[in-house]
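Module 6 notes. Inverse folding takes a fixed backbone as the condition and produces residue identities as the prediction. Think of it as a translation problem where the source language is geometry and the target language is the twenty amino acids. Below is one complete input and output pair. Work through it position by position during the lab.
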C-alpha cells in the first residue's frame, strides 16, 4: 500500500488531501510512523524523529495514529487478496506476497490479476496500491517499489540485468547502514557492482552469506510464499517526553510495558520463551538484551521480573544513563499451556490475577485498572 497510515488519514479527512501529513506520536520526542508523499518531498520518512520532521517542514500536519482504522482497511485489502489466491503471505498490515501461479486459468495472466487487485482495492477502500510482478519474492518486492505511488511494475527474468543492475545496492534485503558503509569502502554502490565484485572483497563483509548475497543481486530467490506466518514476537515500547534518569522511574515504566506486553500475549493465547528489552539513550544509541525463560510464560510479573533483571544488569554497565525509549517484548512464542489445577505455586495466583485484570479491561477499557507500582507520585 502507498503511505498506508497517512493515506487512510487523508481519505477519512478530505481537508488533509494535498497536505504534508505525518502519522506519529503526540510529542516531539516520538517518531514518524508514516509520511504522506507530500511530506516525503521534504525528506521526511518513517522512523524519523518527529522533531526533525517538524524542522524540515514548517507546515507539517501531525496526526495521532488510529490503529483500529488501519486494521479495518487492512482486513478489507487482505480479503480481496484471498479472492484471487489462498497463498497470501502477510508481511504487515499493508504489505503481502501473493502466489498466483494456480490462479491464471481462472483470472488471467499475473499482469491482469495485478491490475484487477489494484482496481478492487481502489474501488472498495479508496486507497492506492503499488504492485510488483515477478517470478520470485525478491524481485517482486523490489519491483513494487519502483513506481510508487499507484504503480504496476512487471519484471521478467530477461529484464533482471537491465532493471536490477542500476539500482542502489540497498534494495537488496539485509543490507543496512553498517553494511552499506563497508560496501562503500570497496566501491560497491549498485546491484551490478555487488554481483560483479570478487569473493575476496565480499567475504570480509558477508562471510558465509557471500554466495547467497551474490545470488540475490542476480535476482535468484527460491523462497516459497508461506500463507500462515507465525508471529515472531509481541512487544510494547514508549518514547518519553523527558529522559528517564532515575532507576525507580525506569522500573515503573518497565512494569507498565511488561503489563502491556503480557496482556497482548494472553489475548493471543501465546506464551514467550524469551524476554527482551530495548533501550534507547538520549543520544539515540540503542541496545537490546534478552534472556530465555522456561517454561514459556505470559504473566505480567513473570515478564517484568526478567525484564527488570536485564535492565538492572545493563544499568550496572552504564551508570548515569538517561533513557529516551524503553521497550519490553516476548519472543520464541508458543501456544499458552493450560495451568495445572493442582499446582499451588505463587505464579498460578499471579495468573489468576492477570486473567481477572484482562476481563475488567476488556469490559471497561485498558485504563480501568492497573498496578499501583505503575502510578506516578
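Target side of the pair, the amino acids:
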Amino acid at each position: 500500500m502507498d503511505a498506508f497510515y497517512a493515506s487512510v488519514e487523508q481519505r477519512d479527512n478530505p481537508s488533509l488531501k494535498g497536505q504534508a501529513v505525518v502519522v506519529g506520536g503526540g510529542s516531539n520526542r516520538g517518531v514518524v510512523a508514516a509520511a504522506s508523499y507530500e511530506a516525503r518531498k521534504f525528506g521526511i520518512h518513517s522512523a524519523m524523529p518527529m522533531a526533525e520532521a517538524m524542522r524540515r517542514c514548517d507546515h507539517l500536519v501531525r496526526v495521532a495514529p488510529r490503529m483500529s482504522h488501519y486494521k479495518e482497511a487492512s482486513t478489507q485489502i487482505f480479503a480481496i487478496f484471498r479472492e484471487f489466491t489462498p497463498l497470501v503471505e502477510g508481511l504487515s498490515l499493508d504489505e503481502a506476497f501473493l502466489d498466483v501461479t494456480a490462479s491464471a486459468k481462472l483470472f488471467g495472466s499475473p499482469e491482469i490479476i495485478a491490475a484487477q487487485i489494484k482496481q478492487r482495492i481502489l474501488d472498495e477502500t479508496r486507497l492506492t496500491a503499488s504492485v510488483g510482478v515477478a517470478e520470485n519474492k525478491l524481485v517482486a518486492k523490489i519491483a513494487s517499489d519502483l513506481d510508487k505511488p499507484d504503480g504496476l511494475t512487471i519484471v521478467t527474468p530477461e529484464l533482471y540485468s537491465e532493471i536490477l543492475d542500476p539500482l542502489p545496492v540497498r534494495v537488496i534485503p539485509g543490507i543496512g547502514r553498517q553494511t552499506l558503509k563497508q560496501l562503500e569502502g570497496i566501491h560497491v554502490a549498485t546491484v551490478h557492482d555487488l554481483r560483479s565484485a570478487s569473493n575476496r572483497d565480499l567475504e570480509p563483509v558477508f562471510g558465509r552469506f557471500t554466495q547467497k548475497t551474490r545470488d540475490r543481486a542476480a535476482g535468484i530467490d527460491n523462497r516459497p510464499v508461506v500463507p500462515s506466518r507465525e508471529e515472531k514476537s509481541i512487544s510494547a515500547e514508549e518514547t518519553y517526553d523527558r529522559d528517564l534518569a532515575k532507576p525507580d522511574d525506569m522500573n515503573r515504566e518497565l512494569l507498565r510495558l511488561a503489563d502491556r506486553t503480557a496482556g497482548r500475549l494472553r489475548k493471543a493465547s501465546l506464551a514467550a520463551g524469551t524476554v527482551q528489552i530495548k533501550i534507547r539513550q538520549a543520544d539515540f544509541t540503542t541496545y537490546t538484551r534478552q534472556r530465555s525463560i522456561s517454561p514459556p510464560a505470559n504473566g505480567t510479573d513473570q515478564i517484568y521480573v526478567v525484564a527488570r533483571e536485564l535492565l538492572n544488569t545493563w544499568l550496572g554497565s552504564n551508570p548515569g544513563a538517561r533513557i529516551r525509549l524503553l521497550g519490553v517484548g516476548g519472543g520464541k512464542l508458543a501456544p499458552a499451556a493450560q495451568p495445572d489445577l493442582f499446582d499451588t505455586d505463587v505464579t498460578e495466583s499471579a495468573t489468576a490475577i492477570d486473567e481477572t485484570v484482562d476481563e475488567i479491561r476488556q469490559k471497561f477499557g485498558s485504563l480501568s485498572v492497573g498496578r499501583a507500582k505503575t502510578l506516578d507520585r
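Reference fact for the lab report: The two ends are 44 Å apart (CA to CA).
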